[in-house]
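User: Predict the complex.
Assistant: Input components as received:
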Amino acid sequence: MRQIIISLFAFTASLLLLVASANANEGSIAFVGATIIDGTNADPLIDGILVITDGRIRTVGPRSAVTIPDGAQIINVAGKTIMPGLINAHGHVGGTLGLGGGQYNTGNLLRQLGLYARYGVTTVNSLGGDEEQGFALRNEQFNADLDRARIFVSGSVVVGDTEEAIRDEVNRNADMGANFIKVRVDDNLGASEKMPQDLFTALVDQAHIRRLPVAVHLFYREDAKFILDAGGDLLAHSVRDLPVDQELIAKIQENDVCYIPTLTREVSTFIYESVPDFFSDPYFLKEADSAILEELQTPERMSRIASSRSAQGYKAALEVAMDNVARLNEAGVKIAMGTDTGPPARFQGYFEHMEMHMMVEAGMSPIDAIRASTGVAADCINVGDVGSLEPNKWGDFIILGANPAEDIMNTKTIESVWIAGNRISD
Ligand SMILES: [Zn+2]
């Protein structure tokens, strides 16, 4: 009997394999007639054709210049806009369930990567809190069957009281295969101790020995200058205490470092003092869990936030952050969209759209915000084969009913999301 069950199992398994390979994303699909925003500095293409073969972009160009391969499936997208999938350069994946943490497992990772994907966020750079299961998903995602957002990982947020402890922790993350080393240089509005400068310097040294870039959580302008002088590679939040000055702008540019505003992170700290407007946005509600919304609207919880000094401190900090985005963008600093979503009440997927809208509200043009969320973001997180619609890159893109370069609110008109050429189901 046992023998029969085992061979039955083997038979079923091989059958499943057969089905899987038959379903694999083979052959070509041609998307014909859309306006194509390719995520680079090129002008949008009117009446373009995008051809995907085996999960990757084969050709993209104007109708007159593209030959559709024989046998390709043709999808008419006239009147629509195609742009690369959104890249969140600062998120966290897998830890939160409802309004609680400590839920890290493969099922929760996949659930959240599916949620991001349905909102058109096709790549997430997870900056901390990553464990083995997240690394495994990162390793598995470079194939044409992918049907969820891509994840890149940092491992643990590095902390330690001694140089040795810091170097050991960097090594542990590096040994696991981290994409970034993540560290915090902040005192949480005076509520905690900031990492001493000598330990930060040792951390950067060890990360660079392991050939890994360092992504830094920060708050204060003078810390940002120190971080850049010490070799930090990515500013993972806004400077929020003071206006950025010429000295800081020069340091950012000399070091060719990217800046991630995470404006919605600030929003999340105080917005639940009352009922947020977005609680009545259908685009939010389509994925929202009503039990979470109810909990966020309990009067005790709202009044606690209204009277919280840190919430009100971050509300003021947001004003500074918004001004700084405008200044840095004007100076030509590379700005990457990032939200710090993942922790409780920072809604993955929806907040990335809100972030783009706020970047425009702060003073960026819609096309700047789009580039910050696609090609520039890919460059900032060192991922070469997504973020723009160019030959040989993965077929990660979104099809929209209206053009977001004309009105950034149109990012909410997503009609379909494609990852490695696979349509993500709603
Ligand atoms: Zn974060």
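The CA atoms of residues 236 and 260 lie 5 Å apart.
Let me know if you want any component modeled separately.
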